[in-house]
Amino acid sequence: MQIIKRIFRFIRGRKRGRIALWIILSLFIISLLAPFIANDIPLVCSSKNGIEFPVLSKLWNGSSQYSDACTWTVKPLIPYSQKSIDIQNGRFVSPLEGQVVSSLRYRHWLGTDALGRDSLAGLLYGSGIALRIGLFAALIAFLIGIFIGTASGYFGNNSLKLNFVQLIILFLCVLLLGYQLSFGFFFGYEKDSMWEVGASIIILLSGTIGFSKTQNLLQQNIRFPLDNIVLWIFEVYKSIPNIFFILVLLSIFAKPGITSLVLTIAFVIWPIIGRYTRAEILKLKEEDFIKSAETSGASSWNIITKHLLLNAIGPALVSFAFSFSAAILLEASLSFLGLGLAVEEVSWGSMLSEVKNNYRAWWLALFPGLAIFLVISALNYIGELIGEYFDQN
Amino acid sequence: MLWYLSKRILRIPFVLLSISFVIFYISKNVPQDTVLNILELEGKAEQNNSTDGYTKVDYLQIAKQNNLDLPNFYFGLRPSHFPKNRAIFPSDKKQENEYLQQEKRISFPVFQWNGANNQYHKWLANISKGNFGISFIDGKQVSNKIWDAFQWTIILVIISILLSFILGISLGVFSKTTKQRRTAEFFKMLSYLLYAIPVFWFATIMLIFFTTDDYGSWTNIFPTISVIDPTEQGFWGKFASSGKLLLLPILVTTLHALGYISRQMESSLSQEIGKPYARTALSKGLTYRSMVTKHGFKNAILPIITLLSSAIPGTIAGSVIIETIFNIPGLGRLIFQSIMVADWNVVFGVVFLVAIITSVSFLISDLLYAKSNPKIRLDTA
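^ Those are the sequences you sent over. The predicted structure of the assembly is below.
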């Protein structure tokens, strides 16, 4: 924690770093407060039933039941939600031209799209989607990448030795895993539950780890070429265009939505983190303190968790910042192509893609794009600064 | 060096083989019915999943012609109570699946050897002869379709990469050698901006503001996007009539890559300038400019050259968005449209082509690197 505090102080010390931190912070705040800033239902409504909070109750239980006969109401700052349709101002109304609104308060300050949805409200709600997808996809990719990168970097081709029993268990479990995963492939038969996959992974791990102390079973230790296998996976990843993976995975997932998009993006970007981590671990492995830990008899687990990962926290943070921004960019490009999210969801990319229907609607391209650009450059700059901080020390 | 070269070349077929398996595996897990697609193409089926217009005999015949009745792979594991040959006609398959799902019992996997008579083998054999089959959408040969698209993409890619490398390298050198610090700062900022702007946003903005004269007559610089005239014969005929449509995509791709390359060139130069030989050159009495251009440049250019080879596959893969926005009938748009309609033969072809280009480019880049840096080739030999 001390180190994170110090990194924050370092970033705050730079003028541009301060701006970048503010951009990310405001992204978080806006995405949390979006329903309270822009909504078509009132925040507070006083009727004969007493005082009601429609926005809160909608967030709480999904329905916004409130009596129409409010004696007084408090409406949000922007009286539109991202889905509310203003028929009178449909068909791409520019922010600069005259709008059919009752007062200045109801004006669409950033224009509307083809259906008459308010751009500003869409922009605010889109920040939540960008944040959720970016954060979760980066987190999943980060965990997979760190795990595989560390394992392949530390063990290499020679260090991971398996005895005969472990090898047999490994072989059987890989066979079982393949059997579970390839049901559709080999039999054209959809399984309705995937719990066997998890079970076989657990058996695989427990079997290979559990027998690691059993030296006397059969003395032959066989080297497991972990690094070669991981490098092979990276090479295949690099050769197949990402767009193929993305499009195919999205069509395999039954329903479009944030979850499938998050998993797809994580699946595509984890090798970047994995490769980076592997290189860092390879560098650290040659340091003296690791060598001395090895000679004093520390176990691999202790070396990895207590020495390697703690010292690799700088590069890990850098790669997390970069994969965060990469995930947001990927989500925006996919929504721009009309993929991923359900049609009624409004994200920055899907707002941008509406320009394809009307090339005169410059406001639909300018503002969401600017938001994407600001967030991405802020994240990249923060990543660069973290790298700089660790280079200095 | 020869040993290193042969080792690297020998890897390529294995990588391609594993890629072919991955692609094939994924395509078999995508929900789609190839036989129905073919029937639709022949005008026998109206829509997906409609049972009218074709008979079971038709269906099975088409499946047999396209080897779709064979097992998928050389071997498989099948639950012990499953029949050896599964039904393929949709309604039969559904019935069988329901029956098998009802039968709740613990089933042990049974190993099944299919021999060379399987879909993957036949498909691979066809591909190795260069026969990618036909497209399910218009019945054209896949290789012809890919070649038509490839020409557009390769022109786009080669021109923009060449331009961006020449301009990017000179910009990087210029901002390191110029004495006007303000100009250097300006170019540094510009290249950062160009690199950081999302390419689809940049493309859309250019398209909105610089293809019409809505915002003043001077903004109408580039031709508006339009469909490429299908009546023109041959690629060069089409290119002559609508090649000007490539102007804006080339500009956008070039500027985006330019930012990255000039930044890389600059950081590479800064590293070289800090080294002792640069100080030696300065203390010999060379001017700063000639030290940078004559000594630093030669060393700094090496990582940039290796960037060049990875830039080609990267730009091809990244052309999906550019080509979709600007309506260029290249590889990127082809693969996008083909995946959306599950036209797998075309998708296989494009992915394979890109994979081959990628492998060859990485080979070239590794060789260039090994040639310039003896440490690498001695380590791995």
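The mean pLDDT of chain B is 81. The two ends of chain B are 8 Å apart (CA to CA).

Shout if you want it in another format.
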